[in-house]
């Protein structure tokens, strides 16, 4: 034992040296000019986001007699959102990438609608993303003047609340910048909506606008406006992370 003393440095000393070197490298990287530049191009790098376009297939969601279906708007905005998120460095998974209902994925309820919602919650929980965003379009038949975005979060999740506040404000700004005067709202706390209660990561349900309002309906079908909404959501996420 005494023979080898001095020849081999103590194992603990090696670990300490290695940690110091590794820590130092990290500091150099963070303080270098490369890191901010990298962040500028990929501010959501390393983040995983599940985007859930509501409804699909047999379930059209909210609809209007002119043939507008919520499910198509949700999917179209989801594709745009995925594209902007990926440009910002995020990893994105869609719960559906085509016009289909997700009830076929499990047999856990007699209700087709419930099976569809269970499937969405299960996809989110299995992937365990940083956040999830469920996209929808609102409807209020007795109040055609009601319009604008509305974001819902679960009452017991402070992270989801912060996310909801940022997205609500950013979407209102998108409407305003398109020349639409939108009444300011606070996001809605909720403790009954199935997805909010059963999906475990922080997340929100985003009602992009109202199917029952003529101006919202026209805008929600417009691809430029859909891009505006997708960009507004990503701006909010850049602030959130
Ligand atoms: Zn919906």
**The CATH homologous superfamily of the largest domain:** Zn-dependent exopeptidases
From the coordinates shown, what is the CATH architecture of the largest domain? 3-Layer(aba) Sandwich
- Cα end-to-end separation: 53 Å
CATH class of the largest domain: Alpha Beta
Helix tally equals: 8
Radius of gyration, rounded? 23 Å
Instruction: Give the low-pLDDT segments.
Output: 1-7, 20-30
Task: State the strand order across the main sheet.
Answer: 2-1-3-6-4-5
What is the name of the CATH topology of the largest domain?
Aminopeptidase
Please summarize the sheet with the most strands. 6 strands, mixed
Question: Which structural class do the helices and strands define?
Answer: alpha/beta
Order of helix and strand elements from N to C terminus: HHEHEHEEHEHEHH
Number of domains: 2
> Which shape, going by the Cα principal axes?
globular
Bound molecules: zinc ion
Give the rounded overall mean pLDDT. Answer: 90
Total number of beta strands: 6
Query: What is the beta-strand fraction?
Result: 5-15%
Q: Name the helicity range.
A: 40-55%
